[in-house]
Amino acid sequence: MEIQWIKTFIIAAKTLNFRKTSEQLLMSQPSVSVHIRLLEEYLGISLFERNKNRVTLTDAGKMFVDKAEKLLQQYEDSIQSIHAYKQGYRRNWTIAISPLLAETILPHILRSFMRQHPDLEITIRVEESHLIEELVDKEDVHLGISALNSTYKHIESIPIFEEHLLFIAPVDIYDDESGPAYDEMEYLQTYTLFTHHHPVFWDDVLIKLRKQVTGLRSMKVSQAHITKRFIQEGLGISFLPHSIVRRELLEGRLMNIHFDLFELPKVTTYVIVKKQGELEKEFIQMLSSHYFG
């Protein structure tokens, strides 16, 4: 049995159309028919029912789809493992991290960690925070970095750092000495407020804002890096954790406006882990000792 027969069968089972299958696989339609026929002969059973120009899966074909996909995945994983071995990797390790944190926390740590473990093939999965705990629980990943605390009792949640929210606005044409005093109320009534790029604090903050700010306009933007870009383009304002905007503030691409309408909440970053092996312990220690200010 050839692996290409399996690939052809999986696509054909999804499209139920040999012409579309041939287009996806960049091969002729007769070749698709040959692959299916050879696979059926090898298995000794029909996988498709052919009725003029239509094909449907037989009961055997429906049962074989899942097994074929697993077989193909095992094959591709094996090839990937061999390539990794040729490159000098001897171990695999997978991290899940939320989009909010991937561009700020991970690069600082990953560079040092990779340098200390040249034999380690690291896979990064960028996932929303509410999905990370389940990935850790299922052991699809070895460790997660999340903006959400763990809810499972058997999953360990380790606070790594806590930071303030900042009121972030586009830069203006004034310098610190000659410009007028910044008025947070004016910004809130003038600009659109980008919200919900963090999974924790927005509902409470919006309730407090709407009690004090008339005519507040808001827009949900689910990704922090998009929010930053929109603010830089002068499209609006938002509340963002300091670590997310640290570089942009230093380079003068964003502006931090003093905010005293009410006390802004702090946000915490957690490591989510089920089993702490040596790699997990070392990575957590590296994270805990890093300054993200």
- Mean pLDDT over the full residue set: 87
Helix content: 40-55%
- Anisotropy-based shape: elongated
CATH topology description of the largest domain = D-Maltodextrin-Binding Protein, domain 2
Biggest sheet features:
9 strands, mixed
How much of the polypeptide forms β-strand, as a percent range?
Answer: 15-25%
CATH level 1 class label of the largest domain: Alpha Beta
What is the number of beta strands? 11
Q: State Rg.
A: 26 Å
- Poorly predicted regions are none
- Compute the separation of the termini in Å: 57 Å
**How many helices in DSSP terms?**
12
CATH architecture of the largest domain: 3-Layer(aba) Sandwich
Q: State the order of secondary-structure elements, H for helix, E for strand.
A: HHHEEHEHHEHEEHEHEHEHEEH
Tally of discrete structural domains? 3
Going by helix content, strand content and strand pairing, the class is alpha/beta
Q: Could you explain how this protein is built, in words?
A:
This protein has 293 residues and is of the alpha/beta class. It folds into 3 domains: 3-86, Arc Repressor Mutant, subunit A; 91-161 and 268-289, Periplasmic binding protein-like II (D-Maltodextrin-Binding Protein, domain 2, 3-Layer(aba) Sandwich); 162-267, D-Maltodextrin-Binding Protein, domain 2 (3-Layer(aba) Sandwich). Helices cover 46% and strands 22% of the residues. The protein has 12 helices and 11 strands. Strands 3, 4, 5, 6, 7, 8, 9, 10 and 11 form a 9-stranded mixed beta sheet that branches. Strands 1-2 form a two-stranded antiparallel sheet. Helix 9 links the parallel strand 7 and strand 8. Helix 1 (3-15) packs across helix 2 (18-25) and helix 1 crosses helix 4. The longest helix is centred in the first third of the chain and has 28 residues, at 59-86. The protein is elongated, with a radius of gyration of 26 Å.
